[in-house]
Amino acid sequence: MSEKVSQRIEARDRSAAADLIKMSEEVRQDFSLSDTEDVVQCYKVINKSNNNSIKGKLFITQNYFCFRSQYGKKLYVKIQISSIKEMTNEIKIYDIEGRMYYFVPQSQEEECFNLMYYMYKYPFSVLDLNIYKQHTVDDHESNNQRKFDIETAQEALVTAEEMKKIKEENYKLLEQQQRKIEMIDQLLDKTDKYLGEIDDSIKATKSLIYELKLRYTKTKQVPPPKEEAAVLIEEIKETPPVPVEIQILWKLENDDLVPATMKIFDDHIDIVETTANKKKTLSRSFSIQEILGLYMRARPLHLQIALNQSGKEKGRIRLCSTCLQFIVNEIYIRYLKIFNKQLSVTFEPNSQVFDYGDLMITKTFMNCSGIKGQIKFTEGEDMALRVLTGKDREDYLAMKKTNQKTVEILDSVAKLNVKTTKMADDSMNSVMDVTTRMNEQRQLIMERKKQCDDIIKK
């Protein structure tokens, strides 16, 4: 299916979405959001940021957390989800600028956290195939002007290589530091042994049987030197092909949202709850053949899968996801392969219409967080290569190859950065341990010196 977009149901059931539509319009106006931002959910919370305690509502859209105070002078707080650096279980949010936000839900605490954390960890994604497939290269090109900025791509590659070199040098310095710490630690072991001998000598000097005690005192065994800490090297292992896995929020019968993993196989789907610290988690499995239709609900980011099973809950699966387009696309394609006919896909009022039924969506979403799979682009499937010829094609391939190399280097830099950070933390802990031992030994030496001075004076 190349360029198909399902139509909204404009005339029917629009009243069911009226409240959500009105709420989204108000939030867009209050927080200056774009027309594509819709309120996914709203919670009553207390804003405890900056030692305050302000009651209000927290609106969650596809890309923002928006707080609006309830009483007194209106307070508006808009947090762009992509700017969040960390989020704790207590809903303390830290952004990249160092600001801290703290919200305490007045009800539905667990669901509020589950939704906010999911939106933060797995950002909203959608792909417009019409825009993706357009050839955007400027046709009014002078003879000496390139359509593709290969020079900038080359500069990015050089920058990435320099960054990698700096990270490698930092890593080597940390390795040297760890070796020195190991040597100091070995010296402290020897000092511990000598302190033990000093203790024996002091006791023997005080004794009337000095010569006998020295003669029959067991010699302390010097512990073997510690081997130098081996530098750990992370091995990148090729993983075997796996089913498509998507992190979702599963909407239960009581309307609670719980984290879950959705595994889509060729002919069936498994959903498994992933709530932490829970003794018994829920799971559900159903075949692609049982699916009657897909419904994009009026509440944004919500999907209902209608099943050919009896009972209200058995006959449906409800979920919330930031990558609904990918889920719908995967189910639609599998259904088409099994039955050789289209699966019914319905967009209810207030739902965002998107493209589906195209392998390009599958391949593009494979790069998103929260999705695991083994599908990759091949040169023959690259859309740009279908519209470029001659010198343009050569320039594009050269730039693409350079960019791929840059991405690989940046990926290795990211992995090296993780190792460097861990080694720096380990070194800091080792330095603190060594410093503590040295202080303790210094105190013991001072005490032994005083004891020896007292013996000599006597």
Provide the descriptors you would attach to this structure in a database record.
disordered N terminus, coiled coil, PH-domain like, extended, nine-stranded mixed β-sheet, 20% strand, 3 domains, 458 residues, alpha+beta, 16 strands
Outline:
The protein has helices at residues 18-31, 109-121, 129-132, 150-206, 210-216, 324-339, 359-365, 383-387, 390-457, and strands at residues 39-47, 54-61, 64-69, 76-80, 84-87, 92-95, 100-105, 244-251, 257-264, 268-273, 283-287, 291-296, 302-307, 316-320, 345-347, 371-372.
Task: Write structural notes for this entry.
It comes from Entamoeba nuttalli. Pfam families: GRAM (PF02893). This is GRAM domain-containing protein. InterPro entries: GRAM (IPR004182), PH-like_dom_sf (IPR011993). Residues 150-177 form a coiled coil. The longest helix has 68 residues, at 390-457. Strand 12 (291-296) and strand 13 (302-307) form a beta hairpin. Residues 1-12, 134-147, 208-222 and 226-241 have low confidence and may be disordered. With 458 residues, this protein is of the alpha+beta class. It starts with 17 loop residues before the first helix and ends with a helix. It is built from 9 helices and 16 strands. It has 3 domains: 1-8 and 242-373, Pleckstrin-homology domain (PH domain)/Phosphotyrosine-binding domain (PTB) (PH-domain like, Roll), CATH 2.30.29; 33-121, Pleckstrin-homology domain (PH domain)/Phosphotyrosine-binding domain (PTB) (PH-domain like); 128-195 and 376-458, no CATH class. The strands form 2 sheets. Strands 8, 9, 10, 11, 12, 13, 14, 15 and 16 form a 9-stranded mixed β-sheet that branches. Strands 4-3-2-1-7-6-5 form a 7-stranded antiparallel β-sheet.
